[in-house]
Amino acid sequence: MVTIKVDLNSRYGLNPAHSEVVEACKIVESCDALDMGCSNGRNAVYLGQLGFNVTAIDTNPGAVDMLQSISTQEHMDNIKAQVYDINNASLGEDYGFITCTVTLMFIDPARVDEVIADMQERTLAGGYNLIVCAMNTEENPCPVPFPFTLKTGQLSDTYEGWELIKYNEDVGTMHNGAKLQFATLLARKPS
Ligand SMILES: C[S@@+](CC[C@H](N)C(=O)[O-])C[C@H]1O[C@@H](n2cnc3c(N)ncnc32)[C@H](O)[C@@H]1O
User: Fold this and answer.
1) Is the pTM of this model over 0.90?
2) Dist. CA 12 → ligand 1 center (Å)
3) Which of 45, 54, 90, 163 has a 20 to 30 Å separation from 24 between CA atoms?
4) What are the DSSP E strand ranges found in 50-178?
């Protein structure tokens, strides 16, 4: 197991990696990874330090530039940051691990099925997808007007035939006390 000796996230003022990325990395071994909606790279930098070969994509050129400059300064040539619109659903390469944390809800709702189908197709046999996305249900209406939210069971249904390593639709509490439900999925593609 690789131990991270220098906290690059703190050095560059990034938040710690998403807790589900940290959890997933206890199972997923270093491989070619795609970070979808990377922002300025809290997850990409973490994955890069663990030895993943990371492609990090986002529509925000400022965020992509910041991540690219971190990888250049740290001589981490295993992190490549690129401007890319996820709505295109046309990933050009295959990956062992695709992570998409708190990003899917910003995607054009009409494109989400295509986006997930493309992620699944571009995952190598035996590889993993991690998705964390807000939900909007009768019991827990989403308090934030995201363009897209998931319905109960929608994400697990989309991964039928994959091994669900982790799946939950837990309800969390925001800083202002409002309830926000998220679907969290770590799934393994059949080998
Ligand atoms: C809430 S942030 C999540 C960042 C990161 N995944 C994390 O866990 O910290 C959502 C990110 O998705 C990006 N995003 C939104 N729509 C996108 C799109 N169509 N294509 C690529 N990135 C997009 C935003 O620019 C933003 O950086």
Assistant:
1) yes
2) 19
3) 90
4) 53-58, 79-83, 95-101, 123-134, 163-168, 171-173
